[in-house]
What does this fold into?
Amino acid sequence: MKKLLVVLFVAVLFYGCASSPDKGTVSKEGEIEREWVEQGITKNFIFARGIGAADQTLENKTQKMATSRNSAIVNAQYNMLSVVKGVQLEGGITVEKAIETDSMLATSIDAAIKGAQVVRSEWTSDDGCVVILRLSKKALKEMGLKIAGE
It folds into this structure.
């Protein structure tokens, strides 16, 4: 029995410390967590997080929340572009280098990032917003990009 309790305690301890793409970034008190794990690249998706501040001169709470969410989405798209540019392609080059020689590829990547799915939106106590975007690697492959190691 004592052994079972120790195993359960250790399991709860590790489960509570685990981080996943679905874990929130805003505490119950409405403050942004001081530390979180950036999702980056998984087997099937590329994740990016963005933070947007609310315009405190607005009096309407809905407007504050909407503008901070829109700002967070733009910030997440910018962060996602940085991640996508660093993806290694077959042949030893990055997406960033491939974009330099193919302007149509740049347009396609821009459209794919703008179409990335918002998987989480959280608001802070001051109506700021944290957003997590998800882009399928399949979307990049459909553009003709051959990702190294896949």
In short: The domain at 38-150 is CATH 3.30.1660 (Dodecin subunit-like). The chain has one domain: 38-150. Strands lie at 40-41, 45-52, 117-123, 129-136. Residues 1-22 have pLDDT under 50 and may be disordered.
